[in-house]
Write a structure and sequence with these properties.
Chain A contains 32 helices and two strands. By secondary structure, chain A is mainly α. Classes of the chains: A mainly alpha (776), B mainly alpha (494), C mainly alpha (112).
């Protein structure tokens, strides 16, 4: 357990230390990061095979740090740390001293830890936690050059798309958890029949797959990956080809034992995979930026692997896993090569690069190995897995159709591989590049060379990775020992034929590249792909989502107090009346007292005063009318046996009126625009409705007493004996409910402070303005 | 009987009065405020611990037995709110102390801050509905002062609207109290719970319930009652805004949860379903408001509304897990929202503005601030492993288990939109070419304003990494809320 | 009696609300005060109207009115007095600063 947890925690700990170490080490920081990567690799290697263990995290929710280091998890963990080590080494030379290395290594180690968490986690929710962290790290790395518009655009796009998928996935996992009662992968697989029989299992599957598809850049979510190329090239090599984009595939394979018998499985997974494969290869041919070509080729290859997992066959799983491994190595290699080209020539434009082999022979050889592997040239690793792919497609549920689509896409793949390996290095020499090309220093060539060695070794002798890496991974996914036989030569099989077609077809197409480009251009003209347009329309700055939000918000948030009150009071009145109506409230059963003549008079005066206040044209008249309304209220209190109230009301009334006069008599009479009729109608409607509700409340409060006035009786009985006062109201205020009074005084004191401050400040403002500067 | 329960209110009251006596002696005021805040924190923690071990703590003010006197009661929910309030008080104080100009403008800044805490804490401990009204008035009066005493035109204007709307809310509160007292003859919450239970099923009970929903919905800024919030918080001075954003609406939410788990629990098909619908609309319209803005403070203000929706959502679903989600979310939100408003305050200090059109590229000069903002913002958006993720996940799971698919869908969309607007702030304000004239803060002052932010962020991370421990607390709190009999018994003792 | 009081309170609330919805700052403040009258009367009504003597204990009197609402109203009046005083000064300062008392022009939308 210590090794597994250590492998996850160490990169995080290293990440946090990076900004601090940066001050100490300066541009040598890369070596520290390298050391962390190597140590993590060692820890991963020391995790016992098939290890699993659990540390509780949130037991109430079934969230536990379960480590599931089976063959599949270990394979990915090795890729993450192995390629990670090479990328750190590569970055040391790639990134100049002027870059903010502290942040770079912080982010990239953060990613490494998060990604290890994804692949080693045996609990779906914990997997999700790390999954989102990889999205965040990717966001930070894409936006590493944050002053560039392209970096910002790419980072935001990648984050929004992957997190949308992530949220869908979270919902799917939650549903799955509520079906099965667990988020533990092994337990879920144990309850497979129960899960599959549940009507919501399809929803859960689709939602989780959305997460996997967005992360692994499947159509139509592939659009973030090309824009992610704004990141420094080591990042592209590491996250956006070798590891992070594999997370979706990893998850699909993780769910294979649970969901592969589901009726939606092949239809969703393989179809999307094949479509992505074709589209990616097609788009790769349209690009002229080397990194863009590689990005689209990554999309295509990810689709290929995904389609294999969708077949639901052991053969497919084996082929997918082997190709995933191979792709990580050869694509990482190719990205590093492109980084070297970019570094040494100052451009990545295919049209400006040609005949570089003379200046950069080693780089040329490395490119040939990488591109050859991707095209499926024999003796290179890609050949073995591509054979398996074609074979598995042919035997899979989609049969010849899948095989044909695969072969077709492979022809396109071969074509752009030739562009990468041949045109750039062996075409006619040009001197068009911003920098004079020369070979890279050996430490920069070392990481791709290591990868190239792996590619060749696996290509020549596939057994090298079969027993230690691939077979255990396949076994982990299938849940049984696979009948795996990786070999260079399988005899004359249909797959061999298709491989040959792909290679030869690609060669032919490359020879006629201009014609092909023209043809593709015509196709592109007739079928426009709208995914990017949709994204830009919705999300990118000042676009639809913000516009809609603004329209909705500015409709209600007008800044006009009257509008706010109309909304608030309107909603309140509507809520109250609707409730009364829906619940069948009746006011017939009220217990009412008779009306006496002077009560008519009092109420009449109150109403008249209120209406005068309302109708007064002159401010002073209105204030006077308000005072006049207060007097009968006071009298009413007296009449209603509330002498203290009457007195207090009277005193307060007088003071308030004086205050009103003091404050407003000194202001000029300012003109107010006359309201429009509709404005006034709404006001009248709201006012009348509020009045009606107030009347209703009064009736209910006064006439619907349902319990004996127990508390009042207690006060009346105990006021004298227990509290020593005969004026019960006073006793309540100072004793029974003294706690109210204490804070009532607090309010009053504060009001005094506030009035004092506000008036005092009026005089000190000029002084403040003279002082100048923004006060905050 | 435990007189400890009165101290969360009496301590700030006494401190406030003492500070008034020390008028003009700012250093002494600062020191005493700080000590008082620390004391309040210790007290709240201790009180919560006592509740955790010994159950609900009740004291009858003045010794008059419930329901005749005023009852003060602290259960786990109140205890947690008291702890959070004192944490935010502490953070605000440390931040404000760097702001000498604010002190000059607001001569009674420190005393009124204490009275603000009196109102907030009293709302959490009182078991009496009219006393709750008084508590609201205390906290409102203090907030009027803190909001407007700077005397800037914007503050006066928005303060006026804020005051009028809150005054209308107070009117409604009194009308509702009149209705409740008229029908049941009591003001004590526990007693009202018993009497309402006896009337269960009658239309009048639901009517009173809806009235309380409107009253507390106004305080808590629910749809469609939230209009007072965005612009007034926008104009509030930086440190003060953090206190408001963290605590004030939550007082309304606290009261809402209290009455709808204690008193009005007999018609959940109507009341709680309505709450759920309101929660969805609040979440959605709040986040749309945030997206529509181009100013950090305005964005953050609208997010308060959106997140209030999340809290109320748990109440609407009304299962133990959902209420635990509400509890978790409240705690998470208070901490994170206060931190974000403090960050906005620091941004103002550096750039002189929070308008995203007028500054950018802050990461180059202030990387620490940038990454702190990003982490806090991601926590707000519910990205793991921060507190925001777990609080949202608990609510999501509660929604899935209860089969409330509409609210589940809305909450996911709102999460994405929240992330979008946090990223908008980050990518516009911190990324891009550095523009605008920066006024660097002296090192020591920077450390002091960053300290509370980092403290709050640490708490958010801690609540994420230690989600197991906090979830245990949240579930226990929810269990307590779902079993109102215990509360009633603790108060009425029979 | 209750019906009459209810109508009176309804009128107070309606007039107060109408004033609150006005564009004029002074009218808004006046409206707020009218609402306060209405609320106090409503509180009083919640204790039942006009049954029994004033709640000042006198030998021989058995039936008193409910003293609780009266105590609440007293608290409410004092609080409302404080709020109104502050509201007035605030309105005054606002009008002074903005040189306008028309709330339709005090939206504050543009200066954000």
């Amino acid at each position: 357990m210590a090794a597994a947890l250590g492998a996850i925690v160490l990169p995080f700990a290293g990440a946090v230390l990076m900004p601090l170490l940066y001050r100490l080490l300066g541009r040598r920081l890369g070596y520290a990061a390298l050391a962390v990567a190597v140590a993590t690799l060692a820890l991963v290697l020391s995790i016992p095979e098939g290890f699993s263990g659990t540390v509780n995290w949130v037991p109430q929710l079934g969230i536990a740090l379960t480590v599931q280091a089976d063959g599949w998890g270990r394979l990915l963990a090795l890729l993450i740390t192995g390629i990670g080590t090479l990328v750190m080494l590569y970055s040391i030379l790639y990134l100049g001293a002027e870059e903010d290395l502290g942040k770079f290594y912080l982010y990239i180690l953060l990613f490494m830890g998060a990604m290890l968490g994804v692949v080693l986690s045996g609990n779906l929710l914990v997997l999700y936690v790390f999954w989102e962290l990889t999205s965040v790290a990717s966001f930070l790395l894409i936006g590493f050059w944050y002053t560039e518009e392209s970096g910002v655009y790419g980072a935001v796009k990648a984050l929004l798309i992957t997190v949308s998928g992530g949220l869908a996935m979270l919902a799917g996992i939650t549903i799955l958890g509520s079906i099965a009662g667990t988020y533990e992968l092994t337990a879920l697989v144990d309850r497979r029949s129960e899960v599959l029989a549940h009507p919501l299992s399809g929803v859960a599957l689709v939602l989780i797959l959305l997460g996997a598809f967005t992360k692994s850049a499947q159509v139509p979510f592939h659009i973030w990956l090309p824009d992610a190329m704004a990141a420094p090239t080591p990042v592209s090599a590491y996250l956006h080809s070798a590891t992070m984009v594999k997370a979706g595939l990893f998850l699909v394979a993780r769910l294979w034992p649970l969901f592969s018998p589901h009726p939606y499985w092949t239809g969703l997974v393989s179809t999307v995979g094949l479509a992505t494969m074709v589209l990616g290869a097609y788009l790769a041919l349209q690009k002229t930026d080397l990194k863009a070509i590689l990005a689209m080729s990554t999309v295509s290859q990810l689709g290929l692997i995904l389609s294999l997992f969708g077949y639901g066959t052991a053969e497919g799983v084996a082929a997918g896993i082997l190709h995933l491994f191979n792709h990580s190595t050869f694509k990482g290699l190719l990205f590093m090569v492109v980084g070297i080209i970019d570094h040494m020539t100052g451009t990545r434009e295919v049209t400006r690069l040609s005949g570089l082999a003379r200046a950069m022979p080693v780089t040329a050889a490395l490119a040939a190995v990488g591109a050859g592997a991707m095209a499926g040239v024999p003796l290179l690793s890609g050949f073995v897995s591509k054979e398996l792919f074609l074979e598995a497609s042919l035997h899979g549920p989609l049969g010849a159709l899948a095989a044909a689509v695969g072969t077709g896409a492979s022809i396109l793949t071969t074509t752009y591989c030739l562009v990468l390996a041949h045109k750039i290095f062996y075409g006619p020499e040009t001197h068009d590049t911003p920098k004079h090309p020369h070979e890279a220093p050996w430490p920069m060539l070392l990481p791709p060379a290591v990868l190239a060695a792996v590619v060749v070794a696996v290509g020549v002798y596939p057994g090298l990775v079969e027993h230690g890496l691939v077979a255990p991974a396949v076994a982990a996914v299938l849940g049984e020992e696979p009948h795996l036989h990786l070999a260079l030569w399988h005899g004359f099989t249909p797959a061999l034929g298709m491989s040959a077609v792909a290679l030869v077809g690609g060669l032919v197409a490359y020879r006629r590249l201009d014609a092909l480009a023209a043809l593709l251009g015509r196709i592109a003209g007739s079928i426009r792909l709208h995914a990017n347009a949709v994204y830009d329309y919705l999300w990118w700055r000042e676009k639809a989502v913000e516009r809609w939000a603004r329209a909705i918000t500015s409709y209600q948030m007008t800044g006009f107090l009257r509008d706010y009150l109309v909304f608030i009071l309107g909603a309140a009145v509507l809520g109250i009346l609707t409730t009364a109506w829906m619940k069948g409230l009746r006011i017939g059963e009220l217990n009412l007292a008779p009306v006496e003549p002077h009560e008519w008079v009092l109420m009449g005066v109150i109403a008249a005063g209120a209406l005068t206040t309302l109708l007064a044209r002159n401010r002073l008249v209105a204030i006077a009318a308000l005072g006049i309304t207060g007097l009968p209220v006071s009298l009413y209190f007296a009449w209603m046996r509330a002498p203290d109230l009457a007195l207090t009301q009277l005193v307060v009334e007088v003071i308030t009126t004086v205050l009103f006069l003091l404050v407003f008599a000194h202001l000029p009479q300012l003109k107010v625009d006359p309201p429009t009729p509709r404005y006034r109608d709404v006001n009248v409607l709201v006012a009348v409705a509020v009045g009606a509700v107030a009347a209703l409340y009064t009736l209910l409060a006064a006439g619907l007493r349902r319990f004996p006035p127990e508390i009042a009786r207690y006060y009346l009985e105990n006021s004298y004996e227990a509290a020593g006062g005969k004026n019960v109201v006073n006793v309540i205020l100072v004793d029974f409910r003294g706690w109210d009074t204490l804070f009532e005084i607090t309010v009053l004191s504060m009001a005094g402070l506030a009035v004092y401050s506000l008036t005092r400040l009026g005089r000190s403002r000029e002084a403040e303005e003279a002082r100048g500067g923004e006060s905050w | 009987m435990n007189n400890l329960v009165t101290l969360p209110v009496l301590l700030p009251l006494a401190t406030g009065i003492l500070l008034l006596l020390l008028h003009g002696r700012v250093r002494a005021q600062r020191l005493i405020s700080l000590l008082s805040a620390l004391g309040a924190l210790g007290l709240a923690l201790y009180l919560t611990r006592v509740v955790w071990t010994d159950g609900i703590q009740v004291v009858q003010a003045g010794g008059w037995a419930a329901p005749y006197g005023i009852t003060l009661a602290v259960d786990l929910f109140s205890g947690m709110m008291l702890v959070l309030a004192s944490i935010i008080e502490l953070a605000t104080l440390v931040f404000l102390m760097r702001d000498s100009q604010l002190e000059q403008e607001r001569v009674f800044l420190y005393p009124v801050l204490q009275f603000q805490m009196v109102g907030i804490n009293l709302s959490f401990v009182t078991g009496d509905l009219f006393n709750l009204f008084v508590a609201f008035e205390v906290l409102l009066m203090a907030s009027y002062y803190l909001l407007t005493a700077g005397g800037k035109p914007g503050q006066l204007r928005e303060g006026f609207k804020y005051l009028v709307i809150n005054s209308v809310a107070s009117t409604l509160f009194l009308a509702t109290i009149a209705l409740l007292y008229g029908v049941t003859g009591t003001l004590n919450m526990a007693d009202a719970a018993r009497k309402v239970a006896a009337l269960a099923g009658e239309p009048i009970v639901t009517l009173i319930a809806i009235s309380f929903l409107i009253v507390f919905g106004l305080k808590g800024a629910l749809f469609p009652l939230y209009f007072w919030l965005p612009r007034s918080y926008y104009h509030a001075p930086p440190g003060i805004a953090a206190l408001f954003a963290g605590m004030l609406t939550k007082v309304g939410i606290y009261a809402l949860v209290r009455v709808f788990t204690l008193i009005f629990i007999h018609d959940p098909g109507f009341t709680h379903t309505l709450i759920l619908a309101i929660a969805g609309l609040t979440m959605l319209l709040g986040v749309l408001g945030a997206i529509s803005q181009m100013d950090v403070k305005a964005i953050l203000s609208y997010h308060i509304i959106s997140q209030v929706g999340y809290m109320v959502k748990g109440l609407g679903i009304y299962t133990p897990l959902a209420l635990a989600g509400t509890v978790f979310y409240i705690a998470h939100h208070i901490i994170v929202k206060a931190a974000l408003f403090l960050i906005a305050g620091i941004i103002v200090r550096i750039t002189g503005t929070t308008d995203l059109k007028r500054f950018s590229g802050l990461l180059a000069s202030h990387p620490g601030l940038g990454l702190t903002f990003l982490a806090t913002g991601l926590s707000l958006a519910g990205i793991p492993p921060f507190s925001g993720f777990f609080s949202k996940f608990v609510l999501l799971r509660a929604g899935v288990e209860a089969g409330t698919w509409g609210i589940v869908a809305v909450s996911l969309v709102v999460s994405l939109l929240t992330l979008f607007s946090m990223i908008k702030i980050y990518s516009r304000g911190f990324w891009g070419e550095a523009t605008g004239e920066l006024r660097p803060i002296p090192r020591l002052a920077y450390a002091q304003v960053m300290a509370p932010v980092l403290l709050l962020l640490t708490l958010s991370v801690g609540m994420g990494l230690g989600a197991g421990r906090f979830m245990e607390f949240a579930l226990a709190t929810a269990e307590q809320l779902m079993r109102p009999e215990a509360y009633i018994e603790a108060v009425l003792g029979r | 009696m209750e019906l009459l009081t209810a109508i009176g309170i309804g009128v107070l609330f309606a007039a107060g609300t109408y004033l609150l919805l006005s564009r004029n700052v002074v009218r808004v403040v006046l409206g707020n005060s009218l609402l306060a009258y209405g609320t106090n009367l409503m509180l009083l009504a919640s204790g039942g109207l006009g049954r029994g003597a004033a709640p000042v204990l006198v030998e021989g009197v058995e039936v008193y009115t409910d003293p609780v609402p009266q105590a609440l109203i007293l608290t409410a009046i004092v609080i409302n007095f404080g709020v109104t005083a502050f509201l007035l000064v605030l309105a005054y300062r606002m009008v002074q600063e903005h040189r306008s008392e028309d709330l339709a022009h005090l939206r504050g939308v543009d200066d954000e």
